[in-house]
Design brief:
The protein has 4 helices and 21 strands. The chain is of the alpha+beta class. A hairpin with a 4-residue loop joins strand 12 and strand 13. The chain starts with a helix and ends with a strand. The structure holds 2-acetamido-2-deoxy-beta-D-glucopyranose (4 copies). It holds the Pfam family Lectin_legB.
């Protein structure tokens, strides 16, 4: 009995030691980054609701956030890592362009102050590829919402794997393999909706997968690249995020993040607990202004048309107004409109001309049958 108890105690102790040593090989941030062990710089900040905001609507800026403790990638350790994070790229207006992008970064240093914004995503600089400093030992998985001439192969928002340089070694249009539908579905990077990203590296293959929040991890990755990172990784490597703005800006967020050295140890992100990124602002002002101008124009047009029609009616009425004389009341309507006289005399045809009197010319005409059967002379 006592022996058993000892065994249980020893087992728990071993388990505890095992757990504490695990602290450095994995972590998870499900419900905000307020308590997170992060090194944050640039315009990046942790918002009161726990969101990690990397950039906001300020041009040509960058923001970084790194897990404070580096991971050991010494010669004897296995070169692997597995990460799952949720990000959101929120452009200034719905359907508008935003910039510039977010990258998951593995770097030998948390100091990326040498880096540039825009197409360099706050990770690289114009000099990065030529220098032999720590900056050349960089791996970045970019979600780039802008096409940069001379840097990007794809002319649209894209996902790319960058080693040393912002020129991706492989890039793809954002999409995911739907396990349910059995086909690829595209993703709009700038929808402002949360996007899940998985980066898996087992020492020989680097896989990148994307999916909307409500979708499970795709069975097939978006990109799968054979790569040996032993030359790139130094003994201590930091993991984190970088984002940049250019002339175009976006609010770029990380909502949740799980990281592990091994596949089995990767903790699941509880997506229901994640803080929510503010939605894309809708253009309410514009939407209300445009119809108002339109409505006023339509009203003006209607009023104008009514005035023209009214004027024409009034003009015609006056022009053809006939004078009613008192005797007419007594003898009933013996009047004919000019129109019916015109019709009756076949347009005052010469054949119908009877003669010329003191009041004018006299024509013979036939009034419509329903009205009068007799012949009338008209003046
Ligand atoms: C990069 O540097 C080269 C020369 O070092 C310069 O000509 C070029 O304009 C620079 N590009 C950017 C984007 O800064
Ligand atoms: C990468 O994807 C390929 C193809 O689906 C798969 O065979 C491989 O196991 C994956 N590797 C990792 C590290 O997830
Ligand atoms: C889906 O996309 C992946 C990666 O881009 C590609 O390898 C695969 O052939 C596509 N599958 C289908 C069914 O289009
Ligand atoms: C990666 O490259 C290093 C040396 O460059 C080599 O020792 C190692 O075996 C390679 N790893 C794989 C998985 O090929």
């Amino acid at each position: 009995m006592v022996c058993r108890l000892y065994l249980v105690l020893i087992f728990s102790c071993v388990h505890l030691i095992f757990l504490s040593s695990q602290q450095k090989t994995r972590f998870v941030y499900n419900d905000g980054f307020d308590q997170a062990d992060l090194y944050v710089d640039g315009i990046a900040r942790i918002l009161p609701d726990g969101l990690l905001q990397l950039t906001y609507a300020t041009k040509l800026q960058m923001g970084h956030a790194f897990f404070k403790q580096p991971f050991d990638y010494g010669p004897s350790s296995l070169l692997s890592f597995y990460t799952h994070f949720v990000c959101a790229l929120v452009p200034p207006k719905l359907g508008a362009d935003g910039g510039h992008g977010i990258a998951f970064v593995v770097s030998p240093s948390t100091d990326l102050s040498y880096a540039e914004q825009a197409q360099f995503l706050g990770v690289f600089s114009n000099e990065t590829s030529s220098s032999s400093s720590s900056s050349s030992h960089l791996l970045a998985i970019e979600l780039d919402s802008v096409y940069s001439v001379g840097v990007d192969k794809l002319e649209n928002p894209h996902v790319g794997i960058d080693v040393y340089s912002p020129k991706s070694i492989e890039s793809a249009l954002p999409s995911y393999f739907s396990n349910v539908l059995g086909k690829n579905e595209s993703i709009n990077l700038l929808s402002g909706e949360p996007i899940q990203v998985w980066v898996d590296y087992d020492g020989s293959f680097l896989n990148v997968s994307l999916a909307p929040l409500e979708v499970q991890k795709p069975n097939l990755p978006l990109m799968s690249t054979a790569i040996n990172l032993s030359e790139i990784f130094q003994e201590k490597m930091y993991v984190g995020f970088s984002a940049a703005t250019a002339k175009l800006t976006s609010n770029q967020y990380i909502l949740g993040w799980s990281f592990s050295r091994s596949k089995e140890q990767l903790q699941t992100l509880d997506l229901s607990k994640l803080p929510q990124a503010p939605p894309v602002p809708r253009e309410e002002k514009q939407k209300k202004q445009v119809p108002l101008v339109f409505i006023v124009l339509v009203i003006l047009l209607v009023v104008l048309v009514l005035m023209v029609l009214g004027g024409a009616y009034w003009y015609r009425r006056n022009k053809y107004a006939e004078v009613r004389e008192p005797w007419e009341k007594e003898y009933g309507p013996h009047r004919f409109s000019y129109k019916s006289l015109y019709k009756a005399t076949n347009g005052f045809c010469k054949d119908g001309r009877v003669g010329k009197g003191g009041f004018g010319e006299v024509y013979k005409g036939t009034a419509p049958k329903q009205a009068y059967r007799c012949e009338k002379t008209v003046t």
